């Protein structure tokens, strides 16, 4: 019952943010310069066609009603229709979503697999040469644009060494194994910056924990250093770690858009780029909506895990 | 068992160690930023060629004495484009950060100072904007309004504003509790002109400076990302992002050319982050 209450509390506190976020997405359509109907139908559309589009978009109705009917649709999975192909936008988005999710997941894996041990080791040897090297490397890592890192990886590992496939490989549906091989470089490019950020944050959280009284007590009673660091101090750093992971997911989804473009992967990123070139406003809006929904979902999970990890918060 | 005696590191020790270790990086960062600033001012004088001048008899030339960074697929001198692009990129990033501060600072101070419902409303909006991946929302706004560097950087400024709002709010709330504010109030100082502008604002600005350095770095990467996606500067204008984007279309023929713009971005952002940390250290009253 307690778990249920925790989830309910978290969801309830996320609702106002969710409503405001959907309003921002809805408002995007108001940013279309001039008459949205003309923008959608082109300059040579007949007045009848324009009227049809206005009716379709509900442009003649009051703003609040437009918002509510859009929201009703969005929450039930109806994100409107593409103005270029007439396809349901939700279909387009869900066709591309898996690739972006897999890429983001892999990148998160790379980020944690490198960043977490690096941060712990740096904290363990704080102020050593190793720590200084790692801290500087992390600061440099944060500064590198990940889509540029992706290009450099392509030049080295695809063009020069030929170890990994370059851009333009098969899709996940056609040849899963080869497609996954093609995701290695994008995942590393995307995850490297995250690894640098995670390493920095984990390091400072761990340094704080390693100077805490309970660590001294554990040492005094003769607990091995390894167990103190990897079990007790790391467990006590789990709150800041959850926060970092939440922030990373948001960053990774954003950066994935650009990295996908570099590697020619057909995920949400390339969908929004194509939609931009074709002025397919409903698709742009849907991608922004889905990206925000993913972040809000992540934040919700982080919030719930807070309440479970630290009973004082619930 | 060297591990068993691993010593407990105090924050003071770490700070001193970092202080010594970081000097080289700090001086290098100042140097990098000074060079970037010089290039922004002097781009016209030091660029050897017109940045947009095409020479179709000299396309994709390798690095040489005539063209220190080679030429691109339209025969334009890459060095000249990079130098002029520095100005475009830095000005664009400054525009974004300027907008973030202009929106964020007053709202943050207002929220922190007034508290109650004003604070609640502002913070809800901040949460909502922050629930979008920054770059995705910037893309959404720019793609809808039409690709253009000013639109793109305004959008980036809007998505960066919540960071400033949060910081200014937290700082204002801390300042509000200070004794000197209480003293000023007891002398009858109230409102914007007598209390907030002369006493609160100067004490909130300092941490904002640190954040401005870090956000400049973010904005530079955002410019490059948006220009790479054709949402930023329009051809033929050069920016770090557009030079990188262009060179990526022929990278199999001249891989060196994608290196330079990316390295320029990475080094500048690195320098901004280091200098940001340094400002923070200098402003910290506890450092002595």
TrEMBL record, chain B:
<keyword id="KW-1003">Cell membrane</keyword>
<dbReference type="GO" id="GO:0005886">
    <property type="term" value="C:plasma membrane"/>
</dbReference>
<feature type="transmembrane region" description="Helical">
    <location>
        <begin position="90"/>
        <end position="113"/>
    </location>
</feature>
<feature type="transmembrane region" description="Helical">
    <location>
        <begin position="258"/>
        <end position="276"/>
    </location>
</feature>
<keyword id="KW-1133">Transmembrane helix</keyword>
<feature type="transmembrane region" description="Helical">
    <location>
        <begin position="125"/>
        <end position="143"/>
    </location>
</feature>
<feature type="transmembrane region" description="Helical">
    <location>
        <begin position="149"/>
        <end position="168"/>
    </location>
</feature>
<keyword id="KW-0472">Membrane</keyword>
<dbReference type="InterPro" id="IPR050366">
    <property type="entry name" value="BP-dependent_transpt_permease"/>
</dbReference>
<feature type="transmembrane region" description="Helical">
    <location>
        <begin position="24"/>
        <end position="47"/>
    </location>
</feature>
<keyword id="KW-0813">Transport</keyword>
<dbReference type="GO" id="GO:0055085">
    <property type="term" value="P:transmembrane transport"/>
</dbReference>
<keyword id="KW-0812">Transmembrane</keyword>
<feature type="domain" description="ABC transmembrane type-1">
    <location>
        <begin position="86"/>
        <end position="276"/>
    </location>
</feature>
<comment type="similarity">
    <text>Belongs to the binding-protein-dependent transport system permease family.</text>
</comment>
<dbReference type="InterPro" id="IPR000515">
    <property type="entry name" value="MetI-like"/>
</dbReference>
<protein>
    <submittedName>
        <fullName>ABC transporter permease</fullName>
    </submittedName>
</protein>
<dbReference type="InterPro" id="IPR035906">
    <property type="entry name" value="MetI-like_sf"/>
</dbReference>
<feature type="transmembrane region" description="Helical">
    <location>
        <begin position="200"/>
        <end position="222"/>
    </location>
</feature>
<dbReference type="Pfam" id="PF00528">
    <property type="entry name" value="BPD_transp_1"/>
</dbReference>
